[in-house]
Write a structure and sequence with these properties.
The structure is a homodimer. Chain A is α/β, with parallel strands linked by helices. Chain A is 39% helix and 18% strand. In chain A, strand 5 and strand 6 (208-209) form a beta hairpin.
């Protein structure tokens, strides 16, 4: 049994409906999410002593430098202090880590962690370009035009070559995620798909097809974090963060030591489990960074839920469903819930909070979940953050 | 005498030459700064357990999303974890605050805080536009075209109207800052100017003239921070951070409650002094956010060094020179040292570190400085960070 120290908790969590949200600005999405977290916690903006705001690309998507300030003002979080945190697609998890440190340092007892991204204000091609600029924009993006579907297609190709992973196995990740997305009212894609539909979908970057790719999604998520003494006072069901791990790897894709996994994710996982003092088998539910179906398979392997190379078979056996060995992305994941990049890590934390409280939707609640894990990756491993949560 | 707790220290500090650095990429500037901090501390990249990297606008200036990852890799800071922090022009101070919290939480004992900005990769007009987008980019920038010289010109106009502050008094801020910039080998502008030159310089946004404005500067700065026990082991001259304050105010310039000062800076200062348990008179040297000459005058008033409205006279009396009541920006300030926005707050911390160690350049060292202060503002007060340092 685990015994990581219960020093910082999530006392409120929420998110807006993810999707192509042409009805709302990024500020309005942020407001929806913070409003949900306030409702959930019973707190008001006045209770918040500091805000840590994750947003990854508002400069490209919304033409706004310093986007966190605009959102903080709109959400009523002023005149308390705030800042913006960014770690590419792991932005939300980096923000949670900052809040954890700030609380334990005594600088603030109650912190709003907000993550948002309004990506559909630009055409899809421009959004894909902006994301591509999250890799190396001096050499790899400008010279080769490499965007993220291409990076992950190369990894999928190598994984298939080394381990015999199949396109069907990738598609089965998508089928599982869409099944759960359809049960999650906040998900972008609320439509179950068949294996045949996934396999027949058009090629995006071979071997990855449409249903292997996460979406260009607008969304926001928020969690309110508090110190132990405060959390116990204001909340009957605090969800504790007992393990945090964080590591990085090189900027250049062409220079990676491995294309079948992320060393940074392996290391971040190791740190988080060590700090939480639990073992893999203690984890009941996981949200991992499935920006592409191959990424979910690599994440399960990197974290150790299955041996490197056996992830495809693990998926095929149904071990990532509710009732399987490790229910994974049963909120739909980046694949079906959507991937508004600054919001994703915070949305993962919000989902695990609901799961550990037993408040997830019917059909996707993991029964008696005691430990949950989030695994959030920026770019192609330049950032890897793993957090472990418990009741 | 002060007695704020000495729990986190700066154990190494450095910066690159600020200027129009067409010889170097942002990664190379970052490397120069981290290299200086490593040299100064006797540490190597392997000693660093985490990096907090401040950069405000690399998306606009360098076409790079997730710029911190690229810099961390180039500076040899991988595979340890890292993240990017942004708070507009207060980015560097926000990064220091994150490092302070992370160290006290126990997540890391030694942290590299790096700030950089390579602004001259785009034409000056584009850089001014990008900065303008750090105000509200939906209404105020797009509708009115307001950029920062205009915002601060409006504040200067009001300050003149309410208190009789003169253009000569503004120019005297510039004369003082250029005098010290000429003595700082790392400053962008190494040229003393006369009052006449300042007064005759061309109008940028009336009443602000060329010499009232900070520069579009390329640069990077780095400080290495450590927990108390580690700091004492590796360093004979730790510089302690004993006070931190942080506050915000509204996004809309048109809705500000005051145009002669920043409420957020007043509040951030109050918090920092309370935490450091010192009084104003204890402070021997200050680096304040003089993005425009009027901003230095407002900062001196907001912090309480002089009564609101009397800042112009205070400057005229020479109280901000070495030997005056509060030597202010005797490194040249944003005005003459330069303002590479992500680097500025870190460069302030590096300067105060050198001052408290007695290692500043001849002619600008404040004798026997025991307490130093930094005041760093993002946008028009959306972010205000005040830190207090001591030997």
């Amino acid at each position: 049994m685990g015994k990581g120290e219960k020093k910082v908790a999530i006392v409120g969590a929420g998110q807006c409906k993810f999707g192509r949200r042409m009805d709302a600005s990024y500020r309005e999405l942020a407001y929806e999410a913070t409003h949900k977290a306030f409702e959930d916690s019973g707190l008001t903006p006045k209770d918040v002593q500091y805000s840590v705001i994750g947003v990854a690309g508002a400069e490209f998507f919304n033409g706004q430098l310093a986007p966190a300030a605009a959102a903080a003002d709109y959400c009523g979080l002023n005149p308390q202090g705030s800042m913006r945190v960014e770690a590419a697609c792991a932005t939300g998890s980096a923000a949670i880590r900052v809040a954890y440190g700030t609380i334990l340092s005594g600088l603030a007892d109650i912190i709003m962690v907000l993550g948002f991204e309004k990506m559909n204000e630009v055409p899809t091609a421009r959004a894909v370009e902006a994301l591509g600029r999250g890799g190396d924009a001096q050499w790899e993006f400008n010279w080769w035009g490499t965007t993220f579907p291409a990076f992950y297609a190369l990894m999928a190709t190598r994984h298939m070559h080394d381990f015999g992973t199949t396109e069907e196995q990738l598609a089965k990740v998508a089928v599982k995620s869409h099944k759960y997305g359809a049960l999650n009212p906040y998900a972008h894609m609320q439509k179950a798909i068949t294996l045949e539909e996934a396999m027949k979908s058009r090629v995006i970057a071979s071997p990855l097809k449409l249903y292997d790719c996460s979406l260009i999604t607008d969304g926001a998520a928020a969690v309110i974090m508090a110190s132990a003494s405060i959390a116990k006072k204001i909340c009957d069901t605090p969800v504790w963060i007992t393990g945090l791990g964080c590591a990085s790897e090189g900027e250049y894709f062409a220079a990676k030591p491995s294309y079948v996994g992320l060393n940074s994710a392996v290391e971040a996982g190791r740190q988080a489990f060590k700090m939480a003092k639990i073992e893999l088998k203690d984890v009941n539910v996981a949200d991992v960074h499935d920006c592409f179906t191959i990424a979910e398979i690599m994440a399960l392997e990197d974290l150790g839920f299955v041996k490197k190379g056996d992830g495809g078979k693990f998926v095929e056996e149904g071990q990532t469903y509710v009732g399987g060995k490790i229910p994974t992305n049963v909120d739909g994941g980046l694949k079906a819930k959507g991937h508004p990049i600054g919001a994703t890590g915070v949305s993962m934390a919000a989902e695990i909070t609901k799961q550990l409280r037993g408040e997830a939707d019917e059909g996707r609640q993991v029964s008696k979940a005691e430990y949950g894990l989030t695994h959030n990756v920026g770019a192609t491993g330049q950032y890897a953050y793993v957090h472990i949560y418990t009741r």
